[in-house]
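Box 3.1 A note on notation
Throughout this textbook, protein chains are presented in two layers. The first layer is the amino acid sequence; the second is a token string describing backbone geometry. Keep the layers aligned when reading.
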Amino acid sequence: MSSLGLLFIVALYMLILFYIAYWAEKRGHSKWSNNPYIYSLSLAVYCTAWTYYGSIGVAANSGLGYLPIYLGPIIIIPTWLIILKKIIRISRVNKISSIADFISLRYGNDRFLGALVTTICIFAIVPYIALQLKSISDTFHIVTETESSSNIFYDTTTYACIALALFTSYYGTRYVDASEKRRGIVTAVAMESILKLVFFLIIGIYVTYFVFDGFDDIYTKASVLENFHKKNSIGGLSGSINWFFLCILSMFAIFLLPRQFHTAIVENNKEIHIRTAMWLFPLYLLLFNIFVFPIAWGGNILFHGKGLNSDTYSLLIPQFFENNTLTVLVFLGGFSAAISMIIVSSIALATMLSNNLLIPYGFVGSLQNKSQEKNNQRIIRSRKIGIFLLIILAYAIYRIFILDYSLVSIGLVSFVVIAQLAPAFFGALFWRRGSNKGAITGIIIGFIVCCYTLLIPYALGITNSTSLFIQQGPWDIELLKPFQLFGLDYLQPIPHALFWSLFFNLMSFAAVSVSFRGNYRERNYAEMFVDIDKYITNHEDAFVWKGTAYVSDIERVLQRFLGEERTKRALSIFNLKYNIDKNVATADARFIKFAENLLTGHIGTASAKILIASVVKEDEISLPEVLRILEESKENIIINKKLTDTSNELQKISEQLKIANEELVKKDIQKDEFLDTVTHELRTPITAIRAASEILHDDEEVPFEMRKQFLQNIISESDRLNRLIDKILDLEKFETGKQKIYLSRNNIVKTVEKTLDSLKQLINNKKIQIEFEDAGKEIRAFYDEERIIQVIHNLLSNAIKFSAEKDGLISIQIIENESNVAVTIHNNGKGIKKEDFEAIFDKFYQSRNQNVKKPIGSGLGLAICKQIIEHHKGAIWAENNVKEGATFVFTLPNYNTTENN
């Protein structure tokens, strides 16, 4: 393909990325740019050109040696729920924007330590960026089938560097506060992660199933090649130890690489996103490695003996079969892998360079006297310059040093250098005794050992057989040979350097930390980091500070960076949070910490401390006093938590009492209505009986027929009175457990038919149609027939009473299940309100939705029904209906239940 054609495609691709970043930045709160999947995919910035091309090269030359770099992260990922969440919480409450800020803040907010960590990161990552540039250059020339030029103006990588620097400096420095979320960059990186995986899977499928006939075919053909079986094994005990250290190396990398810290910590919006990342990121790594072996050994089969660069097999294979479209797609996947790493790493390094080197050691003093606008412009300008300088430096390293090295070799060297931060980093999370002096000593000694065992030999050239330093050691002392230090000769150069550098690093860190106590500020932050969960809500309370400070002085410092409006808003929030009067003139420890946090995102932790210290007078505090204050702070936090919990409990109890009180009032109203109704019901038959009796008593000449009628009225009203009293007594017996039921095996269909027969006249009078499809069937159940007739009678009476005035309809249905028999009775009258479904079974309840003005009946019928059914170990309820009307359902144990047997 022509160079101009490929450049046009690359330019178009970059424009699409610009647009995605622009779109995501404008819609910062959109679910498309702010979700756990975007977060998880952005972590795939771990998969750089090294993964895309270098893994194939390693697999082709040394078999399974590429796997430990991916096994390490997968092994450590289950701990993310604890470790990563802890780091995120610490970073969020302290407004941390880089790993340099994180480590320096933990060890007393030390300026030198922050600068040291930044320097280590630059040493490690800038050659790594150069590695990505090398991959872009090499693959461009393969696709276009052109030779690389020594003239930088004819080198396409030069223009790729400029484009990347412009893109990164524009979208990576939009915010002065470095802890702000860059949704545009993150979304663009996530999109690149998808594309590079898709393109890699496409080339993998193409090689496996189109060039060859599946995995078995590749394995069969590759197995006849020289040293195939030897390469594709761990390699005995020494090989296992090498694998172990490579896994450890990649475990550290997933936490310590600046780009991983930035995407996983700084750009995290919600802790809950970690849960998605814990399964999606390992899945991503797994998918990326499925076709590494087929591509690598497919390339070995096709190009055996031709001496081609195995790193580029994924491009050479489709090019060999003249598949230009696939070749370009693979190139774009590799280009995505490279530029996503360059973009995120440049942003992270530029932030560290600005906040931990340029500002604290350069122009921090001049920032105190400038306006907010000028300060912000200067900070952003310093970061833009930092990004350009870092990418230009990486380009220079690529042109001068890296041209002769493989992708993997440089990548692993960078990993070993960055691993020197591991003891100080993890010690910050879990070890209170870790000190600033210990961290600095450990990092420096570890880096010196790393230089001796790895960087210097690589600079001299590993394959340089004439180098006496590599072959015999300095002064011909064999024990000091850089690749076999102290006689350790079974480790490869990378694991060997990692072992010795971390050994001396860790021993120095521990020994110095134990031997020399840190100052009060280190111990203060140690407590806040190790026990972050205790201080997460009110972390300012745990900050120990003693001295004289005025709010007005600190406010002026804040205004120079935040502006007047934002400063006032921040102070209002602080005063409201801690219930402080806004007219208070002096500042306490909480306000000092609050102010430092506000500045940290803009200028870093060390510079924030310097600026605040310039306007306050701090008194020295002894270590015992710090411990006493921290203990008091812990007690206060525990007391506050208990008070909060107690307050919440009291609020819950208060709400429960309120609900209970409302229920009591409701019951009281129902009781009054019940008594009113019962009184009316009792008075009616008594009045009728009395009236008939008085007539019979006073008038002896009443005709015989009329006398007979009066006596019949007295009898019927007495029966009515008796039934009402029986209901009340029945209910009382059921509620007190005195009522007995006599169970037997019965046919529920016949029981329903008996009840219908007793109500036949009433049904005919109201011209109601009965639908009973199960009539004549035999459905056995276990119940007291007399009591169930009482239930069905009550439900049918209600159904008759409330059916529609015209075309009244009552439908009855019986359903037999494995454990019970369900009887459903429906009428087509007015329905029951949903909120009344449970209340209608209360003994004092009468529905307000009846068809007459005054409620009819005593309100006891359904309450008695409920008691009867529950004594049968069944259930009764009302339910919503698609049709109009009311539906009641009750269940009874069927004939076959174990309980009945």
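The CA atoms of residues 40 and 281 lie 6 Å apart. The chain has 35 helices and nine strands.
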